[in-house]
Amino acid sequence: MQLPDATAPSATQTLKVIALANQKGGVAKTTTTLNLAVAFAEEGHRVLCIDMDPQGNLTMSQGIDPDTLERSMYDVLVHHVPIREVIQKREVDVACASIDLAGAEIAMSTMIGRERSLQKALKDIEGDYDFAFIDTPPSLGLLTINALTAAHKVIVPVQCEYLSMRGLIQLQNTLAMIRENLNPNVDIEGILPTLVDTRTLHAKEAIELLEENFGDRVFASRIRKTIRFAEAPVKGMSVLKYDPDGVAAHSYRQLAKEVLSNANR
Ligand SMILES: Nc1ncnc2c1ncn2[C@@H]1O[C@H](COP(=O)(O)OP(=O)(O)OP(=O)(O)O)[C@@H](O)[C@H]1O
Ligand SMILES: [Mg+2]
């Protein structure tokens, strides 16, 4: 992995926050958060991943046991503990979550400014990272709203099947509400076809339908279905580390290039 230095392209940037969101479960939000972040780190950027999902899958996928954490994103959001205190250094830095985060939505519900808890927490570390990638749970509740309020851009992983498309309308409505009330500039960076089974006509048709509806917002990068993505987290690794020369690693490096070139538009 390339180490960031003063000459890295990131040195003059300010923190850019990208949330990975889709209220549908199992569409590769967590997989994309980690592997895209590692691909950015390979390019020399200083990267933080933030686990906003009580399932703690992102935390676990870097080999961290959520049950052993003394403090987690719950304490950051609810008790305003500095986010630095819940960051662990692995392939990339991870702000960790555990199951107690499931209680955060209720604990925050009576707080003034409850939608901005994460945004405020990030102020502390603005100078420490170039990019923060936020993994969100499969819902449009207060945790996801915190992520969308803190974010500059949203990447939406979509499993290529017809039923997944319908959920996108709901996500767009939530984003419109966030723009109106909380974060005027947040927008979709891109829609990422994931779990693509290139052998099936259905996947091809689903991607065509996505492109008809969302045009050039659909990334050119596609993430194909491969068993590597199930194997890597068991070892506590990204696919970029587990199988550095494989197709899976390559597809996330491609995506990183695409996101970075969009940023320079
Ligand atoms: N390209 C892929 N090919 C094969 N399996 C994949 C791929 N991407 C992800 N997976 C597997 O699919 C499952 C769901 O992925 P992941 O956990 O990233 O989805 P998610 O959207 O974060 O789910 P949740 O909504 O529960 O948080 C995991 O077991 C993961 O290993
Ligand atoms: Mg997940």
Summarize the structure.
Helix content is 41%, strand content 14%. The protein has 265 residues and is an alpha/beta fold. The longest helix is centred in the middle third of the chain and has 20 residues, at 162-181.
Features:
265 residues, alpha/beta, Rossmann fold, 7-stranded mixed beta sheet, binds adenosine-5'-triphosphate, binds magnesium ion
Summarize the structure in words.
There is one protein chain. By secondary structure, the protein is an alpha/beta fold. It has a single domain (16-248), classed as P-loop containing nucleotide triphosphate hydrolases (Rossmann fold, 3-Layer(aba) Sandwich). It has 11 helices and 7 strands. A 7-stranded mixed sheet has the order 3-4-2-5-1-6-7, with helices on both faces. The longest helix is centred in the middle third of the chain and has 20 residues, at 162-181. It is globular. The model is unreliable at 6-12 (pLDDT under 50). Bound molecules: adenosine-5'-triphosphate (ATP) and magnesium ion. Magnesium ion binds at residues 29-30, 53, 57, 135. The site of magnesium ion has 5 residues, from helix 1.
